[in-house]
């Protein structure tokens, strides 16, 4: 009896999940403001991080049960990989216009950036966005002068004219373009982007908490269902929670392909799609003249978990 009681107590504990302020992740907060968590018999504690690399490290070292992150961030080399294998639970979204490159006049296109200074923080998702843009436009990483800057500093530099372009995301992408009288010369809507947001855990923890992760995945699908059927309801609740305009949040989300049933089955329901994405990111990194390093590619994922969870999920009434 005591063993069963301990097991039930463990199940009642919240899952500790890392998160930042990205709108694609923030929609999970709808579950906290509705009855979704209670109905799915799961509790959740969201731990805020200012950047995803810190959140990913915290997950790997055992401080979190799981974290929102990107495929790129999960592939960054870490000393924890000697004893911990990261595992992808499900796909949250894929960037389709939310991320891009803004440039000062007279730059009008990627081709105009040859020999120009571009602000990008090495090792972050912005590096991948720049590599995607370069590849799409048949340029070389050596054609540009890469300036290693964190996002806020890069915005200051482009505003002051110290750099010619920078990689950033919405809504700041549009705000900066307007402020400097510049142009958005690339967005992830121009390619099948590898900027893939996901939620990840440690493989060793997956077996132990698989049922709870499944319930949380169902909560995620419930939220996507609300997004598809009643987006005004979703963004109204989020706007009140986050003290933001519902309209602005909805606009920011428009640049994302949601991690719905179709996308998760397509990418994680068979081993080929996610393996292909990992391979393509590795190939892009191999073209990087700046900050070139060997990425970690031994990521875990479970097609059976995805497919069976999707098969068992039914929308809540």
From TrEMBL:
GO CC field: periplasmic space
Residue span, SsuA/THI5-like domain: 30-216
Location of this chain's protein in the cell: Periplasm
Entry keyword set: Signal
SUPFAM superfamilies documented for this protein: Periplasmic binding protein-like II (SSF53850)
Species name: Woronichinia naegeliana WA131
One Pfam family, short name: NMT1
Family indicated by similarity: Belongs to the bacterial solute-binding protein SsuA/TauA family.
Name listed for the protein in its UniProt record: ABC transporter substrate-binding protein
Main localisation: periplasm
